[in-house]
Structures are given as C-alpha cells and as structure tokens.
C-alpha cells in the first residue's frame, strides 16, 4: 500500500514555476529520500502535500485521501518538521510542546520527556534562550510527540552537531521500526544514503530520477582512480559510459557505467603505477544525473 501518492503535481507562483508534474509514491513502512539542492522544489512539494499551499494542478493523496480535501484530518497522523522552525519566544520549551500536544488525542506526556532526553533538550528553558540547533530539537520532539503514522522531514538536521544528528537518525529508525512511514527531504546526500531505501531526485522543479539507492551505487557505476608514471593520454579514455573525467597531475579519475572489461582493455601497455576501483558516493552519482540532464 502507498501511504503517499503524488501525481503530476504542479505549482506556479504567478508566472514562476515552483514544481511541475512531480510524480512519485511512498510505500507504507519505508524511509523514502527526496533529494535536490536548495531551490529545487522539495519544500514546495511538501507544502502542497500538507495542503499548506494549494497546487496549480495535479493531485496528492495521503492514506488514500485527497490532501486538500482532507488536509486537517490527515495532519493528525502526520509529524512534520519544516526546514525553519519558529516559536513564541517568551514560552518555555515544555509549554510549547504541551500546547502542541493539545491538538492531538491521547498524547502520553511521558513521551515528551523521553524524546527530550534522547535529543538532550532542556524542557525548562525559554525559547528565546535557545540556539538554532536547540530550536531544531524542539521541532523534532514536536513532530514526533503524537507518534505519527507518517513523518515528513524537510532538511531536518540543520543546526544539529554530528552527535545529535546520529541520535536523530537513530530516533527516526526506531519510529520506522515501530511502523511509521518517513519522507526524508534533504540536500545533504550522505544523510539520505544512511537512512533511505529509495530516492527521488528533483531538479528545477521536476523529478529527474526515482531509484533504489543500492542500485544507484552498486549496479550502475564504478569509480576509477588511475595513477600513472608518465604522461596520460586522456583521449585514450574517450569511451561511452565514462563520465566525470578529471585529471589531477598524474592521476585520472572517472565514473564508468558498462562492461568493466572495456576499461581493462584500455589499460594494456599503459605505464600504470596504481589503480583503485570502488563504489562511488551517492553525491557523485547525483551530480552525474544533474550533468546528464543539462
């Protein structure tokens, strides 16, 4: 069953395109990645999905219900962490979280304390005394306190130090194991790589690719590093399937998709000192998709 279904979703701001014909689905129980640089259309898609803005055309459903028509009902089962969080400055953290909890049925208030302990958040501090990172922690606890069936995260780790990021990832994995479906939007590709099984890549408001992360890394590309003792003839590697070719002094770097034996054949008779073949990072693959589409 698909928890989220987005079909040809389009949003224009006057004559300016926000997103155009965005289509993807998120299966129940998965952690789905939504990646692209800032300004690519991730937040616009999420806001339309949450009926915070109305799309120009297309449709989106959550739990099989139209997001616009049933928006207020659906939000009871959604935990949302926006990219920017804002609160009433004079309130204490606990007051903010209790106020948020009052919008949901049957919130166990011990869960607020448990989540705060995990994220090392002081509930007695005033909002205006918090750093940006600690305000983000408030947003995380606020988004999870009602044990939502669907968690939507929009650039969630901004302001968190590496230790807190890891605690946050562990927390999301725990909620996922308990049955929550997760839509994880980020421009930090290593984050998506750690958490997600599938990913949608968005560029300039349109979906470039939807793919299994493991397939992207292991079945499509190999990363080559070739170190030579003499002059390198770059034209020798003018082959279909080679991308991201760079030369750094006597070392050649490139990504290759295809039969690896074609590369081995090109190495015959070459003054090769060292060769490294490895799996490319998601970021390198991601940049390849962008360059390919330009």
From TrEMBL:
The keyword Kinase does not apply. One of its GO terms (molecular function) is ATP hydrolysis activity. It comes from the Bacteria. Gene3D superfamilies: P-loop containing nucleotide triphosphate hydrolases. Residues 4-229 form the ABC transporter domain. Keywords: ATP-binding, Nucleotide-binding, Transport. SUPFAM superfamilies: P-loop containing nucleoside triphosphate hydrolases. PANTHER family: ABC TRANSPORTER ATP-BINDING PROTEIN, ABC TRANSPORTER ATP-BINDING PROTEIN NATA. This is ATP-binding cassette domain-containing protein.
């Amino acid at each position: 069953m698909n928890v989220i279904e987005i079909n040809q979703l389009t949003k224009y701001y006057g004559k300016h395109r926000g997103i155009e014909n965005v289509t993807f689905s998120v299966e129940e129980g998965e952690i789905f990645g939504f990646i692209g640089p800032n300004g690519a259309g991730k937040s616009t898609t999420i806001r339309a999905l949450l009926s915070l803005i109305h799309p120009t055309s297309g449709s989106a459903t959550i739990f099989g219900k139209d997001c616009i028509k049933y928006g207020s009902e659906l939000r009871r089962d959604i935990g949302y962490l926006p990219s920017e969080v804002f609160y009433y400055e004079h309130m204490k953290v606990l007051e903010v979280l209790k106020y948020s909890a009052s919008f949901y049925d049957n919130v166990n208030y011990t869960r607020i304390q448990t989540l705060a302990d995990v994220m090392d958040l002081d509930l007695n501090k005033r909002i205006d005394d918090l750093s940006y990172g600690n305000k983000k922690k408030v947003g995380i606890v606020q988004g999870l306190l009602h044990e939502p069936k669907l968690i939507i995260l929009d650039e969630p780790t901004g302001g968190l130090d590496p230790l807190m990021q890891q605690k946050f990832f562990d927390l999301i994995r725990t909620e996922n194991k308990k049955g929550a479906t997760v839509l994880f939007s980020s421009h930090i590709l290593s984050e998506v790589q750690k958490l997600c099984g599938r990913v949608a890549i968005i560029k300039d408001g349109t979906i470039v690719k939807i793919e299994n992360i493991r397939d992207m890394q292991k079945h499509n590309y190999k990363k080559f590093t070739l170190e030579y003792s003499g002059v390198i003839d770059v034209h020798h590697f003018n082959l279909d399937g080679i991308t991201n070719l760079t030369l750094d002094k006597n070392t050649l770097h490139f990504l290759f998709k295809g039969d690896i034996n074609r590369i081995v054949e090109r190495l015959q008779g070459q003054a090769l000192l060292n060769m490294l073949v490895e799996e490319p990072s998601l970021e390198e693959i991601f940049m390849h998709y962008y360059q390919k589409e330009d």
